[in-house]
Amino acid sequence: MNKALTIAGSDSGGGAGIQADLKTFQELEVFGMSAITAVTAQNTLGVHGVYPMTPEAIIQQIQAIGEDIGTDAVKTGMLFSSDIIEAVSEQVRKYRWENLVVDPVMIAKGGASLLQQEAIFAMKTYLLPLAKVITPNIPEAEVLTGLTIRSAEDKKEAALRLVELGVQTVVIKGGHDEDESESTDLLYDGREFHTFTNKRIQTKNTHGTGCTFSAALTAELAKGASVYDAVLTAKEFIQAAIEDGIEVGHGHGPTNHGAFRKKKELGNR
Ligand SMILES: Nc1ncnc2c1ncn2[C@@H]1O[C@H](COP(=O)(O)OP(=O)(O)O)[C@@H](O)[C@H]1O
Ligand SMILES: Cc1ncc(COP(=O)(O)OP(=O)(O)O)c(N)n1
């Protein structure tokens, strides 16, 4: 069985972070492992508390996996501080983990900060150059590039700038763009642009979409897919998960991580 490691924060509400990543890995038949960077007290209404782990605790979790089990792909999510980013980057380099997906998580849907402002330098300097793929949403791509992104052309310019930071492939996710009928993600690998467009689903249950999309991409890379094919599957996975979103809590409910598998099973009957 192929293996994937997520290095991310815990979401007590179960829709994003480590919980979303492990559910997604399992659904895509990849053995999931985790190194927890922070514990959040979180539900569908927002983030109520953030408790970062020490860099030592994170390093020990990563080493426990690196020294024994190994992994076919790695995903990073919430990293919170520059100390944590530096520690994680060093471990990724040490184990020569090349299938690295960096989801540069900064702000949760409710507005809570999941990355300190001063950590953006460390993210750009130490972590992004190690990434095979980075998956910023539009506000994250704006912070990383200093650009304002409104149009498809702006997205392309941002992708060009991100590749200049040493990243191999950029996928700018379109959940936050202004198009009310479609959600388009842009892939740029330093040579070609590709777009992935799906119908925009009108729902409030979108908590954890970014984590889930990046986790599906990571799981597919762990199984040996090309980046292009991994994004295709991740897009199908997130579309099914949002379509079948779960109505729990009083705010933004989670997506349904089991929906892609159920849809495939129905299709095979
Ligand atoms: N309402 C929606 N309908 C269809 N796809 C969506 C919707 N919202 C987000 N997506 C897709 O979900 C993935 C995550 O995107 P996004 O919401 O931008 O990430 P994040 O959660 O990091 O802000 C992308 O593939 C995006 O196109
Ligand atoms: C612990 C933790 N990590 C990441 C996020 C952000 O998740 P995302 O998929 O971007 O979804 P929203 O929070 O924006 O709905 C998180 N919330 N918690």
From TrEMBL:
Keyword Transferase recorded = yes
This protein is called: Hydroxymethylpyrimidine/phosphomethylpyrimidine kinase
Asked if the keyword Ribosomal protein belongs to this entry, the reply reads no
Question: Region (Disordered): which ranges?
Answer: 249-269
Pyridoxamine kinase/Phosphomethylpyrimidine kinase domain mapped to chain residues: 11-256
PANTHER family per UniProt: HYDROXYMETHYLPYRIMIDINE_PHOSPHOMETHYLPYRIMIDINE KINASE THI20-RELATED, PHOSPHOMETHYLPYRIMIDINE KINASE
User: What are the Basic residues biased-composition ranges?
Assistant: 259-269
The entry assigns this protein to a family as follows: Belongs to the ThiD family.
GO molecular function, one example?
hydroxymethylpyrimidine kinase activity
Task: Spell out the GO cellular component terms annotated for this protein, sorted alphabetically and separated by semicolons.
Answer: cytosol
Q: What pathway is it annotated to?
A: Cofactor biosynthesis; thiamine diphosphate biosynthesis; 4-amino-2-methyl-5-diphosphomethylpyrimidine from 5-amino-1-(5-phospho-D-ribosyl)imidazole: step 3/3; Cofactor biosynthesis; thiamine diphosphate biosynthesis; 4-amino-2-methyl-5-diphosphomethylpyrimidine from 5-amino-1-(5-phospho-D-ribosyl)imidazole: step 2/3
Give the top-rank taxon of the lineage listed in the UniProt record for this protein. Bacteria
Q: Which InterPro entries match?
A: HMP/HMP-P_kinase_dom, PM/HMP-P_kinase-1, Ribokinase-like
